[in-house]
Amino acid sequence: MKRILALCAATLLAASSSAHAGLIGDTVDATWTFGSGYRQSQSITVTDAVELPTGFGLGHSLDVGDDYIEIRLPDTSGISAGVDWLFSSLDFGGIKSVSVSTDFSNWNLADLSFTSDSVHIRFSQSQSWNLGAGVLRVNLSAVPEPTSAMLVLAGLGLVAAAVRRRA
Q1: DSSP class of residue 79?
Q2: What's the rounded Cα separation, in Å, for the pair 95 and 69?
Q3: 125 pLDDT band (50/70/90 cuts)?
Q4: Distance in Å from the first CA to the final CA of the chain
Q5: Quick one: how many helices (H) and strands (E) in the chain?
Q6: Strand 83-88 vs strand 27-34: parallel, antiparallel, or unpaired?
Q7: Which CATH architecture has domain 21-143?
Q8: Model confidence over 134-159: pLDDT tens digits?
Q9: 108-114 and 119-124 as β-strands: parallel, antiparallel, unpaired?
Q10: Per-domain boundaries in the chain
Q11: What pLDDT sits at residue 79?
Q12: Which of 17, 79, 94, 106 is least enclosed by beta carbons within 10 angstroms?
């Protein structure tokens, strides 16, 4: 009986951790568009370091982690058009939700959309863009793997069997 309960506890503990494929080691396609005239696309391999320290867009740095995308912008004074980012080929096991945070106060989020393997972010200008330097961070949340649900069900079944046997 103690073995069954220990097995149940171990199964539930394993199932409760967030399981997802993550992005480390994958190749991600990144496209940056400024206004209607400047566009840059690049395929990058995701590592645990900053992938493009100063080479993404107009001096922007790009860091893609296991479950986030972070863009650091240099002084953005004088920008007078919208900015558009598209990240695709995100082999993440399916994106469930996306959240965006930034320390720029004058940005208007015009579009935030995602599919199971891409994220599109568009900002429009708010009066003038004398924003200085700042950070834009996109947090990704994965769809749980089917094995996680199976482990939870198996653990609950073992707990139910142990309780029934005891009664």
Answers
A1: B
A2: 13
A3: low
A4: 12
A5: 2, 10
A6: antiparallel
A7: Sandwich (2.60)
A8: 788 888 887 666 666 677 777 777 77
A9: antiparallel
A10: 1-19+145-167, 21-143
A11: 58
A12: 17
